[in-house]
Amino acid sequence: xxxxxxxxxxxxxxxxxxxxxxxxxxxxxxxxxxxxxxxxxxxxxxxxxxxxxxxxxxxxxxxxxxxxxxxxxxxxxxxxxxxxxxxxxxxxxxxxxxxxxxxxxxxxxxxxxxxxxxxxxxxxxxxxxxxxxxxxxxxxxxxxxxxxxxxxxxxxxxxxxxxxxxxxxxxxxxxxxxxxxxxxxxxxxxxxxxxxxxxxxxxxxxxxxxxxxxxxxxxxxxxxxxxxxxxxxxxxxxxxxxxxxxxxxxxxxxxxxxxxxxxxxxxxxxxxxxxxxxxxxxxxxxxxxxxxxxxxxxxxxxxxxxxxxxxxxxxxxxxxxxxxxxxxxxxxxxxxxxxxxxxxxxxxxxxxxxxx
Length: 356
Known about the structure:
Blueprint lengths: L5 H10 L27 E3 L3 E2 L2 E2 L8 E5 L2 E5 L6 E5 L4 E7 L19 E8 L2 E8 L7 E8 L12 E9 L11 E4 L5 E5 L6 E5 L14 E5 L11 E9 L2 E8 L11 E7 L20 E4 L5 E12 L2 E10 L5 E8 L1 E3 L4 E2 L8
Parallel strand pairs: 3-7
Antiparallel strand pairs: 1-23, 2-22, 4-5, 5-6, 6-7, 8-9, 9-10, 10-11, 12-13, 13-14, 14-15, 16-17, 17-18, 18-19, 20-21, 21-22, 23-24
């Protein structure tokens, strides 16, 4: 995400939407006939909304994992904070990844306060936490990696090991090296997606043995881009990719985060039969041409929802994201719900569906 220090933004808010497309209208019929109607795909799997409680304030850019009966959510903040829960409802603060900022980050931001947008994944017998270091509105950014054999801070084996810089961007590059997301392909091989604004979302192969870039496969894949839109709005970031029934789904956040109740964040989705694309939305518009089907926008008191992470368990696709609470001066809080899926294989969310 492209942002400044979150604490400053929230203090400014303290002191101080997208709408679904209109339904297709039926064609006029002969006077003696009933009007035709447009078929709506049946919901085959219905999602669930949770109401998380406890330590959920100031949770921004969450990502979720599950190990040995405990759920862990990592999020943007000083030294990467994380919270824990046994039921995904009641959460408590459980610690921070680093005791101090990794030394390599000084070259990118010597005044670093918050580490951004962590991503958690498991491969090669260990957990991999990718994270972003930058400052507001710049391409002077980097993605780092830390690993651990367990997420349980009470385990004697618990120790985060930082492996330094994975990917760097500088002014003039096609991408901004923040908002990492690690995804395993059909063979269990890791790939890293990243990107924010500029020319959008990108992907490259990762070496499974090191967690760093695979130097034997230097190809870079362009997945999504809004910079060529008619309105020239480049605001796309926070990719998260999952697989379902042979299709790959790319979720991305559009528009502006980090402005409290004035945030315009929303989540869009496209899909592809190949991990590396091309991804298209429900209307067939390529995500490289600004496409993306709206799946999450503001609802009730929750403004600017976005930067989602996902956990797939027993066929259920749980989505975590942050949203700004209009009833609490725009404070970002954790939100959780699972996806509904229709008969055409497209997802939706309970929060976006009017109560029946």
